[in-house]
Amino acid sequence: MNLQTMIVSWRSMITVAEMTLRQTVMDSFIIFTVLLQPLIIALLALWMLRDKGSEYAMFIVVGSGLTGLWSSLLFVSGNSINTERWSGTLETLVGVPTRLETIVFGKNLANVTQSTISMIASYLLAGVIFKYNLHIDQPLLFSASLFLALITFISFGLVIAPIFVMNPSVQHWQNAMEFPVFILCGFLFPIALLPDWTTPISYLLSPYWAARALHGTSTGGASFEEVAFYWAMMILFSLIYIFISARLFRLMLVKARRDATLDVE
Amino acid sequence: MNAIEVSHLRRIYKVTIGVVRRSIKEVIAVDDISFEVESGELFGLVGPNGAGKTTTVKMLATLLLPDAGSASILGYDVVKEADRVRRHIGFIFGGERGLYWRLSGIDNLRYFSSLYHVEPDISKIRIPYLLELVGLGSRGDEKVEGYSRGMKQRLHVARTLLHDPDVLFLDEPTIGLDPVGAREFREVIRNLQSENKTILLTTHYMFEADSLCQRVGVINHGRIIALDTPDALKRYARDLTVIEVEMFGVAPEVIDHVRGKPFVDSVAVEDRDQKQVLLVNSLQGAEIVPALMEALDGVRIGRVQVREPTLEDAYVRLVGGDR
Questions:
Q1: Angle at CA B179, nearest 5°, toward B175 and B184?
Q2: Residue B320 pLDDT greater than 80, yes or no
Q3: Which of A73-87, A130-144, B122-136 has the highest mean predicted lDDT (pLDDT)?
Q4: How many CB atoms within 10 Å of residue B12?
Q5: In total, how many domains does chain A have?
Q6: Is residue A264 domain-resident?
Q7: How far is the C-alpha of B220 from the C-alpha of B96, rounded, in Å?
Q8: Which contiguous run of DSSP H or E holds residue B33?
Q9: Which residues from chain A sit within 8 angstroms of residue B114, using beta carbons?
Q10: Angle at A109 between CA B131 and CA A205, to 5 degrees
Q11: Quick check: B42 pLDDT over 90?
Q12: Distance (Å) of CA B276 to CA A27, B244, B255, B256, B273
C-alpha cells in the first residue's frame, strides 16, 4: 500500500465515521446501548458499593464504560454489514473502489467513539449524584490505554461483522454473548473471583487486556511494565484480528457475490 | 474500442424449496449471452420481468459472480480485476434504496465522493454542480427521507457521476417516476451521452429505448433473442398492422373471442384511465377492421386507429405475444 492509497483510505474512513455519527446520534437503540444501559449498570454498582470509597467508584466508572463499548461493538458494529444490506446500501458500498473493511473500520470507529460517552456519563453520575471525588491515577498511561482499547475493540468488530453475515446461526447467539464477556473480561469485578478454568478464555479476549490496562491505570496498582504488557497484548490481538478479518471479508464478499446476497429483494 | 465486452456469460441462481423436505432448484437467469458496447454508445437491454436484465447488469457492475463466460469493462475483467472496474463505472438500480435517508442529499454525495476517492477540492466543486444538473440545487441540504421518489432517483444519478465514470449502468432508472420526472430523467441521460459516456440502459419502456438507444438487445429467459438498432428491430413487426380500439368496460371473454379469430396475430389490452385500448396485431392489414368490429359487437367502442408497428409491437412479438 503506497502513501497515496493510505491517505485516500484514511480520508474515506474518517468520512465514514463522521457520517455514521451523524446518522446514529439520535438513534434510540444506540442511545440505550451506549448510554442508558451502562448508566443503569453504573448506578446499581455504585449503589451497592456506596460505602467502599472513591477507588471502587472509579473502577465502576471505567467498568461500566467498557460494558457500553462491548455492547456497542457486539450489536452495532457486529450488525454493521447486515444493517447496510437491509437498508439496500451494501451493493452500492461494494461497488465503490474503497475496500469494505475500510468502510466497516470507519463505522466501528464512530461506534466506539460514541461509546466513550458512557464512560463520561458514568463519571458524571459518580461525581454529581454520589459525590465521589474521582481522579485518574496515571492520566497519560490511561489515555494511551484508552486509545489502544478503542483500536482493539474496533479490530474485534472487524472479525465479528463478517462472521455474523456468513453465519446467521451465530448471530442468533448475539444476545447471549453480551453478559458473559462483561464477566469474563473483568469489566466490573476482577476475574480472580471466577473459577480457574475460565482464565484462559479471558486471556484470549482482547477486551480483557483493555480492562486490565484501563483499571490498572485509573485506580492505580499497575506498574509501567505491567501496563506495557497489557498494551502489547492489545496490539498483538488487534493485529491477529485484522489479519483474520482481511481473510473473512474476502471470503464473505466472494460468497455474497456468488450467492447473490448483497441485497435483499 | 469496445467499452463493454460480454462473452458467453451465464448465471444460475440456486433456490431452496420446501420447509421440511428442502430441495435446491436451479434457475438459469442468464444463459450464454454475448454482446459488445462501443465506447460512447447508449445501449439498451429490454425484456420482461425476470428475463435476466438486472442479473446481467449486476455481473458487469462486479456485484455478482458469473457461473461461466467472461465480461470486461474498458478491458478489465469483471471478476479478476473488479477493483479496477469499480473505478471506471457508475451504476443505478431502479427504486429508492441505496441512499442514506437520515443524511442530507449533500452529505450523501460527500460520503460517496470520499468512497469513490474524489479529491476534496474537486468534490467541493462537483457536488453543487451535480445537484444543479439533476435539479436538486435548492434541496441538497434537506434529509433524503423527505425526498420524493423522483428526487431520490435524481440523487442516485448525481451519486453515480461523482467520480466522472466512463461507463454507466442504468437499471430501469425511470421506473416509478411520474411522466414529468421520467421525461426530465431521459433528458439527463441524453446529456450524459452527449458527454461521450458509455451507457447500458435497461428498461421496460420501449419508447424510452427507441428514443434513447443506438442499439437494443432484447433479452428473454436469459437469452438475447434479438440485437439491433431500434429501426432494424421494428422490422420484426413490419409485416404487421396494429389496430388500436378504444373500449369501455370490455369483458375478458370478448378479448378471448377476438384472440380466437383467424385474422388476429396477437392481442394486448392496455388500461388508460376509464377506458381500455385493445391492441390487435394482424398480418392482413387494415382490411380486417370491419371483421374486428363485428367481433366486438355489443361493446361500447370509442376511437379506432390503424398505425404502423412500433418497437413495442416488435418487442411483444419477439418475447412471445399475448402478454
A1: 85
A2: no
A3: B122-136
A4: 16
A5: 1
A6: no
A7: 26
A8: strand B23-38
A9: 11-12, 15-16, 98
A10: 155
A11: yes
A12: 49, 10, 11, 15, 8
Of A23, A94, A254, the CB nearest to B63: A94
Residue A255 lies in a domain: yes
Query: Within an 8 Å CB–CB cutoff, is residue A97 touching chain B?
Result: yes
Please report the pLDDT score of residue A61 as a whole number: 84
What are the CA-CA distances from residue A80 to residues A24, A34, A187, B35, B61 (Å)?
A: 12, 15, 24, 38, 23
Q: What is the mean pLDDT of residues A62-83?
A: 87
CB contact under 8 A, A8 and B64: no
CB contact under 8 A, A103 and B115: yes
State the Cα angle at A77 between A71 and A78, rounded to 5°. 85
Q: At residue B316, does pLDDT exceed 90?
A: no
Residues of A in contact with B165 (CB under 8 A): none
Is the Cβ of B148 closer than 8 Å to some Cβ of chain A? no
Cα three-residue angle A72-A69-A61, rounded to 5 degrees? 135
- Is residue A225 packed enough to be buried (19+ CB in 10 Å), middle (13-18) or exposed (0-12)? exposed
Instruction: Tell whether A265 is covered by a domain.
Output: no
Listed residue (B24, B9, B17, B90) closest to B55, CA to CA: B9
**C-alpha cell, B209:** 429505448
**Is the model's pLDDT at B322 over the cut of 50?**
no
- CB distance B19 to B79 below 8 Å: no
| Residue B84: burial class (beta carbons within 10 Å; 0-12, 13-18, 19+) | middle
Asked whether A59 and A215 are in contact (CB, 8 A), the reply is yes
pLDDT tens for each residue of B191-229: 888 888 999 999 888 888 998 999 999 999 899 999 999
Tell which B residues from 238 to 267 touch A, by Cβ distance under 8 Å: none
For residue A117, is it within any domain? yes
Locus of grid cell 483510505: A9
Domain extent for A229? 3-259
Tell me the shortest Cα–Cα distance from A102 to chain B, in angstroms. 10
Instruction: Using alpha carbons only, give the angle A71, A77, A80 rounded to the nearest 5 degrees.
Output: 140
Taking the C-alpha atoms of residue B247 and residue B168, their distance in angstroms, rounded to an integer, is 42
What are the chain A neighbours of B62 within 8 Å (beta carbons)? 94-95, 257
Q: Is the pLDDT of residue B321 over 60?
A: no
Contacts of B323 (CB under 8 A, 6+ apart): B48, B268, B316
Closest CA to B70 of B81, B62, B78, B61: B78
